[in-house]
Amino acid sequence: MLDLVGRSCLITGGSKGIGLAIATRFARAGATCTLVARHERPLRDAISILAKHGQQDHRFLVGDVGNKELWEQAVKMNPRIDILVNSAGRSQTSLLLRTPIEEIDDVIRVNLLGAIYGTKFYLKEMTRARRGCIINVSSVLATTGGGGSSAYAASKSGLHGFVKSMAKEASRFNVRINNILPGYIETEMTAVIRSSAKAEALLKTPLGRLGTSAEIADAAYYLATNEYVTGTDLIVDGGYATR
Ligand SMILES: NC(=O)c1ccc[n+]([C@@H]2O[C@H](COP(=O)([O-])OP(=O)(O)OC[C@H]3O[C@@H](n4cnc5c(N)ncnc54)[C@H](OP(=O)(O)O)[C@@H]3O)[C@@H](O)[C@H]2O)c1
């Protein structure tokens, strides 16, 4: 199905993992993508992957989503986008007592402020066009919490309040905003988790396996194409949140 033909998307964290899977899914549906991340080499590799699907004119921008200057640059490069996906994120794997203040600040800055900045910078043009869709990649830990992930869980539950509020502010302009809450998904982010922590995550996942980035991309595609969904948290977690 090519139902995103003519749509322009900007996907942060699009060079790898979940962000790249979403970009690939959208490109296959005919969209043109701009990918954002901090390292150029993986971005270039990701663009070559996208070029194998549909459009050829995908682009990338190097920068940190937690910096306002990156968003000024993004809007200059690409003033009008139809779909913004905030997938860039960083994890935390230490108890609060052992987590340096700088790391706490960075988790909140990248995971929460990054998504808020992106929304703020692109909202004006979306409201003017009377069309827009914003998808944040949150986490199931926003609802369950997780030992060793306090700042991370706080950054992701911040997205819950943000999306609820923005759905109220933006719906009259036909701009929709939603969160996806993945459980444990096989990506570089989870590759570094200790095997004991991974085994524990699997025990807590009724479906008994990690999810795939493609399964999260399917959820993003649903949110991008279903015009009656806004202000929601879509959990895709193999049942993790039920435990
Ligand atoms: N994997 C999971 O199990 C899981 C579960 C729940 C939620 N999530 C969420 O899903 C999102 C994607 O995670 P993932 O597993 O796909 O991670 P990943 O494979 O590590 O990819 C992270 C992506 O974000 C980019 N990135 C990281 N920090 C950035 C920054 N400050 N500015 C711009 N780009 C940045 C990375 O590229 P650079 O390093 O080049 O910047 C990369 O493209 C994250 O928000 C994560 O919290 C993941």
UniProtKB/TrEMBL annotation:
Matching entries from SUPFAM superfamilies are given as: NAD(P)-binding Rossmann-fold domains
Which organism is the protein's source?
Arthrobotrys conoides
Q: Which Gene3D superfamilies match?
A: NAD(P)-binding Rossmann-like Domain (3.40.50.720)
The record ties this protein, via PANTHER family, to:
3-OXOACYL-[ACYL-CARRIER-PROTEIN] REDUCTASE, SHORT-CHAIN DEHYDROGENASES/REDUCTASES FAMILY MEMBER
Record-level GO BP terms: fatty acid biosynthetic process
Coiled-coil positions are none
InterPro entries according to UniProt: KR_dom, NAD(P)-bd_dom_sf, Sc_DH/Rdtase_CS, SDR_fam
Pfam families, alphabetized = adh_short_C2
Task: State what protein this is by name.
Answer: Ketoreductase domain-containing protein
Where does the Ketoreductase domain lie? 7-183
Family affiliation: Belongs to the short-chain dehydrogenases/reductases (SDR) family.
Keyword field contains NADP: yes
